[in-house]
Every structure is written in C-alpha cells, then in structure tokens.
Amino acid sequence: MNRYKFPENFLWGGAIAANQSEGAYLEGGKGLTHVDLLPTGKKRWEISLGNIDQLTPVEGEFYPSHTGINFYHHYKEDIKLFAEMGFKTLRLSIAWARIFPNGDDATPNEAGLQYYDAIFDELIKYGIEPVVTMTHFDIPVNLIEKYGSWRNRRLVYLFENYAKTILERYKEKVKYWVTFNEINMLLHLPFIGGGLVLQEGDNKTQIKYQAAHHQLVASALAVKACHEINPKAKIGCMLAAGTTYPYTCNPDDMFNAMEKDRENFFFIDVQSRGSYPSYATRFLKENEIQIAMEPTDEELLKNNTVDFIGFSYYASRTTSTDPEILKNTTSGNVFGSIENPYLKKSEWGWTIDPLGLRITANQLYDRYQKPLFVVENGLGAVDKLTAEGEIHDDYRIDYIKRHIEAMGEAIEDGVQIIGYTSWAPIDIISASTGEMKKRYGYIYVDKDNEGNGTLKRLRKKSFYWYKKVIQSNGENLD
Ligand code: BG6
Q1: How far is CA 270 from the centre of its chain?
Q2: More exposed terminus of the chain, fewer Cβ within 10 Å: N or C?
Q3: pTM for this one?
Q4: Which residue ranges have their beta carbon within 6 Å of ligand 1?
Q5: CATH dotted code for 11-471
Q6: pLDDT 10s per residue in the chain (478 long)?
C-alpha cells in the first residue's frame, strides 16, 4: 500500500484511437482517412512528415490501419475485458470519415453514427464513462485532395459541422470531449497532425501556423457548440506534453529549453487562456509569418476556452545549444530530443522519466490553473508469450506504477488531476511505426507486424495488476 490518495470518482481507465484499433477501414460506409495512407516501413515516416504526396494506397504496401485489431467487430469482447479490469472510463476517438465519409457530405452517414451509439451503449452498460476525442489523427482524404486540408479555412466549418453532429447525437451518452488529439503534433508531423502535404519551395512554417490557427478556431467552435448543446458536458484540449530540460545550466541551454516548451504551449495557451501569447507575436513577426484571421476570431478564441487540459506524457525531453551534444539524439514521441544521461530508455529509445510527469503536471497546472487529465501514458515494449500462453510484463507494471506514483505526488503538490487513461489498454498498432510488436496493452492481441494472427485476446500479468490499482483507487500499487 502506498500513501497516495486519489480523488473520489477519479477516472481510471485506458485510451485508444479509432484508426489504430478499429480496422474495417471501408466498412459501414466509412471514407478513406489520411492515416489509412500510412504504410509500414521507412516510407511511413516521410509521409507522416508531409514529404511524400501519396493520397491513394499503393498495391503491395501494408497499411495496418485497414485492419487494426478489428475493434470494429470485437468491441463487445474488448469492452467486457475493460469492465473486468474495473475501468471507470475509456478514452476513444470517433473516425470523422465514418460520420462524414468525404468530410464535406451534406448529411451524415447513419451507419457510422449507429456504430458509435452501439459502442457508447456498451460502455454505459458497464458504467464506463466515454471520453471522446473528436479527431485523433483522422482526416477524410477528400478534404486533403479538394481543399489542401487544414491550410484551408473551409476545414474550420466542416469540422464545426462534424462536431455539432456528434455533440448533438451523443449528448445523452457522452459527458467528456476532447477536440484535437495532440494538437501540437501539427508542427512536428504535419501530415499526421494536419493532413498537410508540403512541396519543395513551400513556406512550410507559414503553412503550418496557418493550419494551426484554423485548428484552434475549429477547436473553439467545438467548445462553443459543446457548451450550448450540453451545458453539463466538459470539453478539453490535448497536448503532447513532456517538459524540456536544458542539458546544462548554461543560460543559452535554459533559454533554448524554454523556447522548445513554448513551441508546444503555444496551442494550449490559445485554447486555455483564449489568446495568442506575447512570445508568439514576436516569433511570427520575426519569421515573417502572416496569419490570415477573420475579424471575429479573437473574440471567439477568448470566449470559448477549454474546461480541462488533457495531455499525453511518455517522456521528458532534453535540449542543448552545443552542436557536439546535439549529435546524441534519441527518439521520443517524435519530438527530437538528445539523450539524458541520467535516464534509461525504452526499447524504442523513448526516455523513461516518471518524475518528468510530476514536473510536467505541475508546470501545466501553474500555467493554466485548470483541471488536468492524463489521457495517455504507457510503455511500448516487446512482449513474449510463455509456453503456457502467459505474458509476464513486469517492465510495464513498473513503468505504469512509477508514473502513477509521480501523479500521486503531483496531486499532493496541489495539482488537480481528474483522471488517468493509460495508452493503450489493449495492444493496438503503433502510430509512429505502424508496428504491432510495439505493445502497450494489459490485453495481448495475437497479431504480428505483417498482419498475421488469430486476433485472440489474452490477459497479461499487468491486467490483474491494473485491476487491483483501480479497485483500490490507486492505493495498492504493489
Ligand atoms: C501519441 C498518440 O502520440 O502516442 C497515439 O496520441 C500513439 O496515437 C501514442 O499511439 C504512442 O505512440 P506510438 O508511436 O508508440 O504508437
């Protein structure tokens, strides 16, 4: 037993995304989504960056989102397993293209709406609160072809229409909403985050910030609609978080770390405080970026700020201004970072830093003074099946345990945290690599990187452990 006291009604659970779990990529009238164009292999990264213009699947390449883990057909079985673990909540996303297959259709696709009705009913049956992300790396491909995606203001209104449709349809079933998953990803992986395909000679920074403005306005419109349609619902933003440490106490390194953090805070500053931060004004001016805005945008952003700050935390980052030190790069949720000599890394090179979660949570709470929601945190690792068909994932238990402890400390620090949904409670495909073998789940799914397997679900050791954690409201982490 530990000494951490989590609030009553703390939302314990897990988080998944439509494109990484559902599969059935063209079933039920769904349209093609931009992540359906991400194959496995080296090309995936270049497409994610927006460097390759490939808007139709290519014969012979493997697209893992097309089949996912077939949550589309297995959702009853999977939700039953989440219920067995005692989940209070499940964070999941709606695939925009299931509701509006082309993104700009005049009427929504009833089959898509019914599919999510069935999912929410199933969750509610077990007393599991759905937390719904409106868009988790999900853009109908037609919107990229026709309008150039988020660089075009048209997307703002199409998204608003989509948001209003789902808010209205599910107002009796969903009380927690998240607008854009990891909204700051747009700057780092412009295709994944914003459906942006960038050509040689494009002013990339200009395009990215214009697209960012559109997403921020769209997010504010969704907040407005949510508050009007269901005043009792709560709607939040979602940041790919992880504080940046300076490699040394050289003020140059310190300033650099501050700037790196601000690059990401920029989005949440607008979504939570309601206006462009002063440092952004200087940045935009010095980089000669002109953001086209409508006269009503400022007021809209001001009056429609989020109710809570959702964030993912996998790792902290480290930065330096020394070119020699900068050579020691490591990966980590796509943000380039250099190696932190004090910390260990996962098999995929992601820094493991539980204290960084406490620091990040404190930083966010100091900055925004709004409830926080840890909507993603977890360890991607290779799991081995024993001859008896068991998975002894003590490394995962250790990772999650230490992060829950850090969250407990942050709560002791006075930070208000309303929930924790670990990524991902069941093995799903990796967003960055498309692999199945990068597993996060408490539930094992029999499927390999090439798409072979029975899809059978198996409880890992961590399954029983997390069940105890939830049962004891975070008091029993042993
Ligand atoms: C977050 C995303 O960036 O990290 C998820 O919101 C993603 O979609 C998760 O799956 C873990 O990353 P990866 O690349 O290991 O799947």
Answers
A1: 18
A2: N
A3: 0.96
A4: 17, 20, 181-182, 240, 312, 333, 376, 380, 423, 430-432, 438
A5: 3.20.20.80
A6: 567 889 999 999 999 999 999 999 999 999 999 999 999 998 999 999 999 999 999 999 999 999 999 999 999 999 999 999 999 999 999 999 999 999 999 999 999 999 999 999 999 999 999 999 999 999 999 999 999 999 999 999 999 999 999 999 999 999 999 999 999 999 999 999 999 999 989 999 999 999 999 999 999 999 999 999 999 999 999 999 999 999 999 999 999 999 999 999 999 999 999 999 999 999 999 999 999 999 999 999 999 999 999 999 999 999 999 988 888 777 655 666 889 999 999 999 999 999 999 999 999 999 999 999 999 999 999 999 999 999 999 999 999 999 999 999 999 999 999 999 999 999 999 999 999 999 999 999 999 999 999 999 999 999 999 999 999 999 999 9
Closest CA to 424 of 405, 410, 445: 445
266 to 113, 133, 212, 271, 310: CA distances (angstroms): 33, 20, 10, 9, 15
Q: How many CA atoms lie within 13 A of 113 on its CB side?
A: 15
Q: Of how many residues is the chain composed?
A: 478
By most ligand atoms within 8 Å of CB, the mutation choice from 312, 352, 438 for ligand 1 is: 312
Q: How far is the CA of 278 from the centre of ligand 1 (A)?
A: 31
Q: Is 435 noted as a catalytic residue in this protein?
A: no
Residue identifier of the C-alpha nearest atom 15 of ligand 1? 430
> One of 122, 129, 376, 409 is an active-site residue; which one?
376
